[in-house]
User: Which sequence fits this backbone?
């Protein structure tokens, strides 16, 4: 049994309503230290909304989100120190460079000069940004922009990573590099990974949380997902079919 002190990500009855529209309802799960959990679901299922609730970008209509034991509604600044968040199509400052942006972010987070230098060297290498370090972000390809976003999420060495489609827009070689990076990071960090690529889930994840129509319909291992129908794709279809 996982001790509550080991839980790094907690969604407790998270619900978000927009008038009569239900974006998420009673979403409940937790992710302990050192686990890589896949967060799956069809388009419009509530994945991105849940991630925004967990990271404090949205306020829940009901329920609570905790990161590192801190309630996002009450201790957002403290909780944010634990989080590295890569949103899908996250906004970047197009007129600056990866170097300029990441230096600014590091200074805004209060990283000491020596620590910032160390972390910049780390993310440049891990996210393969050497060739575009001094180029304007607005002129970069989607794949490079995604890697700048990943570097942003990793810069302050957070204990928790919440990644929304981290391999979106990457070519096969870049996708492989990011998967290897996620595997490496998963040895010391807690990761919640949203993706549509089921082979990616099998390659890097310890566990699956599947959401459909704003509600969790499966929370278990990769093997549990397989057991629904024998393979990942068919299990996904069955669990997210109309009326599930």
Assistant:
């Amino acid at each position: 049994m996982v001790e509550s002190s080991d839980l790094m990500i907690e969604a407790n009855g998270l619900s978000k309503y927009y008038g009569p529209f239900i974006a998420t309802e009673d979403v409940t799960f937790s992710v302990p230290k050192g686990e890589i959990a896949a967060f799956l679901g069809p388009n419009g299922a509530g994945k991105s909304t849940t991630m925004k609730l967990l990271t404090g970008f949205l306020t829940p209509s009901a329920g609570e989100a905790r990161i590192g034991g801190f309630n996002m509604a009450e201790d957002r600044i403290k909780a944010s120190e634990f989080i590295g968040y890569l949103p899908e199509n996250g906004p970047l400052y197009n007129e600056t460079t990866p170097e300029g942006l990441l230096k600014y972010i590091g200074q805004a987070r209060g990283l000491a000069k020596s620590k910032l230098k160390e972390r910049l060297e780390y993310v440049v290498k891990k996210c393969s940004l050497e060739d575009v370090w001094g180029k304007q972000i607005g002129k970069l390809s989607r794949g490079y922009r995604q890697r700048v976003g990943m570097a942003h999420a990793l810069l302050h060495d957070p204990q928790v990573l919440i990644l929304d489609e981290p391999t979106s827009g990457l070519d096969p070689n870049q996708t492989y590099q990011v998967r290897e990076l996620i595997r490496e990071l998963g040895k010391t960090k807690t990761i919640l990974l949203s993706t549509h690529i089921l082979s990616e889930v099998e390659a890097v994840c310890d566990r699956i949380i599947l959401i459909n129509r704003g509600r969790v319909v499966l929370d278990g291992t990769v093997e549990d997902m397989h057991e629904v129908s024998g393979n990942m794709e068919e299990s996904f279809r069955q669990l997210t079919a109309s009326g599930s």
User: Anything to note?
Assistant: The radius of gyration is 18 Å.
